[in-house]
Structure formats: structure tokens, C-alpha cells
Amino acid sequence: MSLLVLTNILISSFCTSIGAMVVLMIKDVSHKGRDILLAYTAGIMVSASAYGLIPSAIKLSNITVLVIGILIGTLVLTILESLLPHTDLHHSENNLPKPNIMLFLIAMSIHNIPEGLSVGTSNISSSQELGAVVTFAIGLQNIPEGFLVSLFLFTQGMNQFKAILLSTMTGIIEFFSGIIGILFGQLFEGVVPYALAFAAGSMLFVVYKELIPESHGDGNERASTFAFIIGFITMVWLTNWFR
């Protein structure tokens, strides 16, 4: 295990903590502000899937593998949602129950496992360019993902530092799955495109099922739509800038 490969995995996972720390700058967020932030985050995550994970999966395999991976990612989160108590992000109306924070964290942690495997196995593949691309794509989308988790915890009444700590723990899970990807790279090498597509599918599920409905919950559809598009463009611009 080279130092460079280990560093790539560590940086990619640590990006979750970087995103989570942004919540320190938020003292009091209105419903409209929260909707805009969630929509902006959703735009970045969709762009990371469409512009990073999905092209990488196709490059390694074919459209059939991509479709299978995306559908499996969507199916796994659908099953998880049906088996566990409902974890939708709700506004704080008095007639709605408070979401189960632990179950939301479990869902986000499961989502990080295939991402870590993808980073680990791609960094020991024969294509050095692939390792850099996958590390960058997943690491960059981990920033808004870490912010999303910490923002959700903060808006549910948790203090900022505990929200950052729990968000960081989801990134640690990705780090250890990345180590597994390195140690068993030969076994997982054929799984990498499926894992990339799985991560994309699960991310798209979270965005469409949770973030978009939530960002439109208070009549802020127009502002949230523009925030989503700006987030999408931001990710595309950053990806091109760093390449």
C-alpha cells in the first residue's frame, strides 16, 4: 500500500469533514435559507453523479453495467427505507413527527461504502488517471454531502460540534471501505464500475426522494430551483478546473 494511494483515500474521506465544518458558519437559518442550501447541495450531488461517477463507470465497463449498478443502488435504498422507520427530512410543523436521526445516519453511511471501495480499487488499477478522477469526483461530492448531514443534524436541534462529529464518522466509514478496496483490490476490481454506478444511483435516490421535496416544502420552489442549477454548474466548473 503506497503512501500516495493511502493519501488519496484519506483526502477523499476527509472532504466529508470539510463540508461538515461549514455548519459552524450557520447561526440561525430560516426555512427559505435552508431550502436554498439543500437545493444547492442537491445540484452538486446530481452533477457529481452525472459528470463524475457515471462517466467513470461507463469508461470501465458499458451501459448495461451502469444501468444495473444504478438500479441496485436505488433498490437498496428503497428496501432500506421500507424496512426501517421513515427518515424523510421534514420541516418542523407541530403535526409532523421528528425524524429518526440515527436511521438517517445509517442510510448515509451505507451509501459511503461503495464509494470507498471505488476509491480504493481505482487507485490500484492499471490506469493511474482513473484513480485520480474517481478520487476527485467522490472527494468533491463528499464536501456537500458532509454539509448536508451536519445541516440536517443541526436543524434537528443538535449542537454544531456534535453534528460535525457524527458527519465525520460517515466519512471514516468510507475511509475504511477504501482500505478494504486496496487490500482486496484484485477481487473487487471487476466490481468497481458497479460500485461507481451504485453510488450514483443511491445519491440520485437521496436527492430526488429527500432533498428536492424538502427544498420545495415552504413555497420556495423558484429560489430552490435556481440554487439547484447553480449547484450543478458549480460542480461542473470545479471538475473542469481541476482536470
Write the layout of secondary structure elements.
Layout: H1 3-21, H2 31-60, H3 63-83, H4 101-123, H5 128-155, H6 160-183, H7 185-188, H8 192-215, H9 221-242
Helix pairs in contact: 1-4, 1-5, 1-6, 2-5, 2-8, 2-9, 3-8, 4-5, 4-6, 4-8, 5-6
How would you describe this protein?
With 243 residues, the chain is mostly helical. It has one domain (31-242). It contains nine helices and no strands. It is globular.
Query: How is the quaternary structure best described?
Result: single chain
Q: How much helix, percentage-wise, in residues?
A: over 70%
**What is the alpha-carbon Rg in Å?**
17 Å
Uncertain ranges = 89-99
State which percent range the strand residues make up.
under 5%
How many domain modules? 1
Order of helices and strands: HHHHHHHHH
Distance between the termini: 25 Å
Could you report the average pLDDT, rounded to the nearest whole number?
A: 79
Largest sheet, in brief, is:
none
Q: Tally of extended strands? A: 0
**Silhouette:** globular
Instruction: Look at the helices and sheets and give the structural class.
Output: mainly alpha
Number of contiguous helices: 9
Brief digest:
The protein is mainly alpha-helical.
List keywords for this structure.
mainly alpha; globular; 9 helices; 243 residues; 80% helix
